[in-house]
TrEMBL record:
Database matches in InterPro entries: DCL-like
Region feature Disordered, mapped onto this chain: 94-136
Swiss-Prot/TrEMBL GO biological process terms: chloroplast organization; chloroplast rRNA processing; nucleologenesis
Compositionally biased tracts (Gly residues): 99-126
GO cellular component: chloroplast; nucleus
Protein name according to UniProt: Protein DCL, chloroplastic
Comp. bias intervals (Basic residues): 127-136
Amino acid sequence: MFHYFYNFLHTWPQYLNVNKYEHLMLLELLKNGHAEPDKKIGGGVRAFQVRKHPTFKSRCFFLIREDDSADDFSFRKCVDHILPLPEEMHLKSDANKALGGGGGKHYGGGKGGRGGRGGRGGGGRGGHGRGGKWRN
């Protein structure tokens, strides 16, 4: 279940309403997995979209209510409520992430990490590429 929603989140184009089937899947996920589904859903969900979260700068599911208000929700927390995830799949504190802290497990993320795939970190070999020391 986790992989289904994770892959969907990372492949669906941003700011495009999801299709009818995915709409039903996300609505069921909210109803069964969210801590306060009635409050989150409000007067009804008109659409779901994938958007960039304004604070965390990552892809996130958003619901657009019938009154045109929009709100994000964590598919991860919903899935965890239905089917508890292994401890290593739990996210670090949202407050820590918002303040620039990193998990350190994703592609050069974290503070001062040298691993990962490209990005700022030098390609995963001690920050110097394949040949040891950096060359001009």
